Amino acid sequence: MFGLYSLLRPLIFRLDPETAHTFTLKTLDIAYKTGLLGRSNTESSKSIDVMGLKFPSVVGLAAGLDKNGDHIDALAALGFGAIEIGTVTPRPQAGNPKPRLFRLPEAEAIINRMGFNNFGVDHLVEQVKKSSFNGIVGINIGKNFDTAIENAVDDYLICLNKVYPHASYVTVNISSPNTANLRDLQSKDQLGGLLSALKNAQGSLSQERGKYVPLVLKIAPDMDEEALHTVADALLAHEIDGVIATNTTITRDGVEGIKHGDEQGGLSGAPLTQKSTAVVKILYERLGEKIPIIAAGGILCAEDAQAKLDAGAKLVQVYSGLIYRGPQLVRDIRESCHLK
To answer: For 318-329, b where at least 16 C-beta lie within 10 A, e where not — what string?
Structure first.
């Protein structure tokens, strides 16, 4: 099944990207239900303890591929050490107008301006309950597009309360470029209040539910070193459990003059490789071993993943690399990458 992707990719790439996305996930579900994918195995000799959780391998699935948690079992069967679903919002929303997803094959890149399209947090929770996967499931939460930025914390708290009993860890997404003003939450003026509220809620939920669910912050790659230091200091001050570096970029380095290269939205894939690795290095210099870094952005081969681990990350996540290289990428990283 893994080798089949290279044969199917040209056919899949003939489809509109969003149509291809839906088709591929439905095909994976069928392959899983008919036994072609096998079953996920959460046991591994390369397991690693991060945030108090035992990850079977260093490679996980980044949020965005399965926004609603509809395909957890099939995706887990590809060999991921963790599956992150979402981004999910309190209320269902359609997202931005189509077309909103663009492939740039010459650069092995993707531009998206999806806009947190999802069926709402209640739907996602029900899907997690139905899943038979007993491994690590991260749930990525955001705010509705029409929630004022000054009220954003309310949306995050709604989602946190609902997903907490069902998540291995919860990721707070304040870095998507496709929801107006969302990245303002990364600023010094806004970040402290948000993290304080979430940390207080985590403490209360931990007592109520009898389990501690780590909180992770997902940040943008487009901050300068001073801004990254501000974020790192806030993570330390509020004892946040982890950080994902990074989301997509609004820069267009590496895709100039390419068809769709000037589309609005977040750029992911190969052009993001060095930029996201640089962010990991800066964060690690500030955080050291105090807060684990999960690296994402521009991982298209095992060497890319290893570079991020060498830069200080404890785990990596893939998305665009999976689209271009297929499930073999997961196996390659799982088998050949290691912590320094």
So the answer is: bbbbbbbbbbeb
Q: Is the pTM of this model over 0.85?
A: yes
pLDDT tens digit sequence for 243-296: 999 999 999 999 999 999 999 999 999 999 999 999 999 999 999 999 999 999
Q: What's the CA gap between 121 and 142, in Å, rounded? A: 10
Contact assessment for residue 115 and residue 100, using Cβ atoms and an 8 Å cutoff: yes
Token representation of residue 201: 């809620």
| Residue among 40, 131, 176, 268 flagged as catalytic | 176
Kindly report the CATH number that applies to the domain delimited by 4-336: 3.20.20.70
Question: Taking Cα atoms as reference points, which of 209, 204, 242 lies closest to residue 84?
Answer: 242
Q: How far apart are the first and last CA of the chain?
A: 32
Instruction: List the domain boundaries for the chain.
Output: 4-336
Q: Would residue 176 show up in a list of annotated catalytic residues for this protein?
A: yes
Question: How many Cβ atoms sit within 10 Å of the Cβ of residue 175?
Answer: 25
Q: What are phi and psi of 78, to 5 degrees?
A: -80, -5
pLDDT, one tens digit per residue, over 191-242 is: 999 999 999 999 999 999 999 999 999 999 999 999 999 999 999 999 999 9
Q: What is the Cα–Cα distance from 312 to 295, expressed in whole angstroms?
A: 9
pLDDT of residue 40: 65
Residue environment code for 89-108, b if the CB has 16+ CB neighbours within 10 A, otherwise e: bbeebebbeeebbbbbeebb
Instruction: State the alpha helices, DSSP H only, in 131-269.
Output: 152-163, 188-209, 225-237
pLDDT reported for residue 5? 85
Residue with tokens 């790659």: 221
Structural tokens at position 21: 């996305």
Mean pLDDT for 79-107 is: 98
Spatial distance between the Cα atoms of 261 and 94, rounded to a whole number of angstroms: 24
| Cβ 61 vs Cβ 83: under 8 Å | yes
The number of C-alpha atoms within 13 Å of 230 and in the hemisphere containing its C-beta is 14
